[in-house]
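Hi,

Apologies if this is the wrong queue. I'm a grad student, and the batch job for Putative mRNA 3-end processing factor from Dichotomicrobium thermohalophilum produced an output file that my downstream script rejects. I'm not sure whether the problem is my script or the file. Here is the sequence I used:
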Amino acid sequence: MQKGQSHPSTWMEVRPEGLFCRPGGFYIDPIRPVKHALITHGHADHARAGHECVMATPETLAIMASRAGADFAEHQIPMPYGEVTGTSGVRISFHPAGHILGSAQILLEHADTRLVVSGDYKREHDPTCAPFEPVPCDVFVTEATFGLPVFRTPPVEGEIDKLLGSLRLFPERCHAVGVYALGKCQRLIRALRDAGYDRPIYLHGALVKLCALYEEHGIALGDLVRVSEVPREKLAGEIVLCPPGSLTDRWSRKLPNVLPAMASGWMQVRARAKQRRVELPLIISDHADWDDLIRTIEDVGAREIWVTHGREDALVHQAKRMGLKARALSLIGYEEDAAD
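Support response: The file is valid. Your script probably expects a header line. Output copied below for reference.
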């Protein structure tokens, strides 16, 4: 830190509830109910109900209301990207993270120091959300979900080609693709549309509500049909999207001649695909891979890196090799597979 700056460790701390800003009196993505919470995005391991006051992007507030009810918090404060507010000497602003609809990095400015909590983020093109914007800062708090050099995500277009190629090769089989309901589902649909696939895409009922929310926010997804609305035998040769857990339960066994597929960053780990009995692994991730984690650290220009939820040790080691200060926050309560 330069002369006159206060080191963030004097005003940010890790508590059992989560990362806490002492002068502002608020938590970021707390895992337990608190009075004041700033939420980076709508995935359940970051956006929990029960807080008295929640500040988030308008899209994230809409997602939380869709999942937990309109009264999920007594006070809801929308923060569009780039707007600035402040409390007790702390300036707060939200910036695109490129993870899912409404996902944000949170910039805190206090005592002439800029700290960015990135939440979950990715750098790949994704038309279903605002693209990641590097925010210059002194301290960068980064995720490390895929924080090992072995994790390098291929272009999504190639994975979509694999899915469409399998449909041509096995036209009699129902291609059931496991996707997380928020973010991955809508991204896969949009990628299929961009690849020219204009047939109906069939949805498990658990995916319908969030797809409708995305469309309400201007993300066109095309013709979507609930599986329960058509005879199951008509799904041969079609694409059916479902939650990952449905690939191995009675629901999927009612589909005709199922070819189980899954869209996940973890599908580059063969043991994971085998464990889930996936025939067609699609490596599609909503997190930064190893190369993009390093690129982001370089882009934001921070002199200190705090690493959380994921492969912390490897990224801390790499940041130190780059001549930066680095530490692992070891926050608890975040699920590795929540939105991969």
